[in-house]
Amino acid sequence: MLKVFLQIHRFHRNYMARLTTMLVPHKLTPGNWSLLQFLHAHEIATSSQLAAHWDVEKPTVSSNVKQMLALELIAVVPGEDKREKNLVLTAKGMALYESLSEEVLTMQESILRDIPPVVRTQMEQVLTVMEDSLKEARS
């Protein structure tokens, strides 16, 4: 295995462990956090939009949505088409997002503090190319 893939794997495992530690007291998973982030950024979304954004199957999104509905962090609102169900943050979800986002951002900034902005941009570009290569290989 190339060293870069080992480093990506180790970074991901350690990052997710730190993130999970922050989320567990709020009964959230990293997937739940991603849903909160997406709805905060986009205000409203369907399960299909979430599945496309995360590049996962709809059942993966559905289980996440059920958990978040049970915690009363999101709500379902009808769309223009009666079959369409839109997801939005509740006031409780917005408050939790706002309190947690500061903690998560502080952690992310501490991870990146020694990496200059130009290198961060290069990292994003390289990871995007790698992700695109994986998607092409799947097609």
Question: Could you tell me the mean pLDDT?
Answer: 93
Helix content: over 70%
What is the structural class?
mainly alpha
Low-confidence stretches: none
Query: What name goes with the CATH superfamily?
Result: Winged helix-like DNA-binding domain superfamily/Winged helix DNA-binding domain
How many beta-strand runs?
A: 2
CATH class term:
Mainly Alpha
CATH fold assignment: Arc Repressor Mutant, subunit A
Total separate domains: 1
Q: How is the biggest beta sheet arranged?
A: 2 strands, antiparallel
CA-based shape? globular
Question: Could you describe the 3D structure shown?
Answer:
There is one protein chain. Helices cover 71% and strands 7% of the residues. With 139 residues, the chain is mainly alpha-helical. It has one domain (3-138): Orthogonal Bundle (Arc Repressor Mutant, subunit A). Strands 1-2 form a two-stranded antiparallel sheet. The chain is globular.
Q: Summed up, what is this model?
A:
With 139 residues, this protein is mostly helical. It has helices at 3-23, 30-42, 47-54, 58-70, 91-112, 117-138; strands at 74-78, 85-89.
Key structural traits:
single chain, 139 residues, mainly alpha, Arc Repressor Mutant, subunit A, two-stranded antiparallel sheet, 2 strands, transcription regulation, WH_DNA-bd_sf, WH-like_DNA-bd_sf, DNA-binding transcription factor activity
Secondary structure: elements and pairs:
Layout: H1 3-23, H2 30-42, H3 47-54, H4 58-70, E1 74-78, E2 85-89, H5 91-112, H6 117-138
Antiparallel strand pairs: 1-2
Helix pairs in contact: 2-5, 3-4
